[in-house]
Design a protein that fits this description.
Blueprint lengths: L1 H34 L3 E8 L11 E8 L4 E8 L3 H7 L7 E3 L3 E4 L5 E6 L5 E6 L4 E7 L4 E6 L2 E7 L11 E8 L1 E7 L5 E7 L7 E7 L4 E6 L13 E8 L5 E8 L7 E6 L5 E4 L6 E7 L4 E6 L20 E6 L5 E3 L10 E5 L5 E4 L14 E7 L2 E8 L2 E9 L1
Antiparallel strand pairs: 1-2, 1-28, 2-3, 4-5, 5-6, 6-7, 8-9, 9-10, 10-11, 12-13, 13-14, 14-15, 16-17, 17-18, 18-19, 20-21, 21-22, 22-23, 24-25, 25-26, 26-27
Keywords: Membrane, Transmembrane, Transmembrane helix
């Protein structure tokens, strides 16, 4: 009798372990299968069919993956001419892709978060001032928001038991008008442009140290000794290296057409490097590929009729280049077809680089082309996704 019970017990344990092993293998298979899926979030803008109306442009936020899924996260039409104009002037500044949520605004007065998995809004906050820019620390999913009057951080808050409030909290960092903010990977620093006057767009570069609650001006809005009535600095993008060593901005004077170039600031030494001659005709945004190297795309096909750009290699083709911030030396990224203009590089830790082949300027007004997303990996350049419409924001969510 005892031996029968022992046999039954062993049989039961064996069956239980087998069932557990099957479940575990299934979870592991699904996990590693998920790791191999490339997911890219993007916002596309569609043509306004009625060209006599100054608003009504359609924006769609979507999540596409390498398995062929293309999920709609949000969709809206601009409701008046002012909103339409702002959303077509550097539109990428109104959308930002976190690890689990996309943040955006559709009326410039409220910030909205949408969950990737459920496709539902999980946060919505109305503000009393117009939103100018949204950016994110993707690792911690902390969003930095610049408005006409202040700078904010939207982040997770500690949730108490039985707490039914939103898991996100919005905190004001500083008063003022700030442009193109970036937040460091450890969320200690925010770097951004600051506009001190309502009359002109002269922009200085400032750094907020959130740990010590300090603010420091890194670069003046002035260019040389010229008065602001004659010329001043404009800023188009900002970025901080992962080790908080360098800040890189895309900048220009107020002249027309703007000649954009890169400037780098070493946060440890305070050294400012203006790469005006060799990084001219840069397109923003770019990205760090290491602590001391920054990738951007350089070249402007539409500038053939403006001036002499002979110091720049292939000045009328937009191609990816890397600048060494210590030496200023440029390195052109190879294996990109010369008949394709490339914009908006995104660099991943496995040395994979993503690009798109349109820039948002060409979508205005009412001239929207379809956009392709490419990948360069192991010297192989390949088309990933063909998007019907013009991409005004995109990011790699996972791969």
């Amino acid at each position: 009798m005892k031996s029968t019970n022992k046999f039954a017990m062993k049989k039961f344990l064996f069956a239980g372990l087998t069932f557990f092993a099957i479940i575990l293998i299934g979870f592991l298979y699904a996990y590693f299968l998920q790791l191999g899926i490339e997911k890219i979030g993007y916002v596309k803008v569609l043509n306004n069919k009625n060209r006599n109306i100054l608003y009504g442009t359609t924006f769609e936020g979507r999540l596409v993956d390498s398995k062929g899924n293309d999920k709609l996260l949000f969709k809206f039409k601009t409701s008046n001419a002012e909103i339409d104009q702002k959303l077509t002037f550097f539109p990428h500044r109104f959308f930002s892709w976190g690890k689990n949520h996309v943040a955006y605004t559709q009326n410039l007065k409220e910030v909205i978060l949408v969950d990737y998995k459920t496709g539902r809004e999980v946060y919505k906050q109305k503000l009393n001032e117009g939103i100018e820019f949204i950016n994110v620390n993707k690792a911690k999913e902390e969003f930095v928001i610049a408005t006409e009057k202040a700078l904010y951080i939207l982040k997770y808050r500690k949730k108490q038991e039985n707490d039914k409030k939103s898991p996100f909290i919005l905190k004001r960092v500083a008063e003022g008008k700030f442009w193109f903010p970036s937040i460091s990977i450890d969320s200690r620093y925010i770097v951004c442009g600051e506009i001190a006057s309502n009359n002109i767009l002269a922009t200085s570069l400032v750094l907020f140290d959130l740990l010590n609650n300090t603010k420091k001006k890194l670069i003046s809005e002035k260019l040389g000794n010229l008065p602001l009535t004659q010329d001043y600095r404009l800023i188009y993008s900002t970025a901080i290296s992962n080790d908080n060593k360098w800040v890189v901005i895309s900048t220009s004077s107020s002249g027309t057409p703007p000649y954009r170039y890169l400037t780098a600031i070493n946060l440890k030494s305070g050294l400012v490097k203006e790469f005006g001659s060799n990084t001219g005709l840069c397109n923003s945004p770019g990205c760090f590929v290491s602590s001391d190297k920054y990738m951007f795309t350089q070249g402007e096909p539409e500038y053939r009729e403006f001036g002499d750009y002979s110091p720049i290699i292939e000045p009328f083709r937009s191609k990816p280049v890397i600048v060494d911030l210590n030496t200023g030396k440029l390195e052109i990224v190879n294996n990109v077809p010369k008949d394709t203009n490339i914009y908006w590089p995104i660099y991943k830790n496995d040395k994979t680089i993503y690009f798109i082949d349109r820039k948002y300027y060409s979508f205005v007004p009412n001239k929207i082309f379809d956009t392709n997303i490419y990948r360069l990996k192991n010297k192989k350049f390949e088309l990933l996704f063909q998007i019907k419409g013009g991409i005004v924001s995109y990011d790699v969510i996972s791969k």
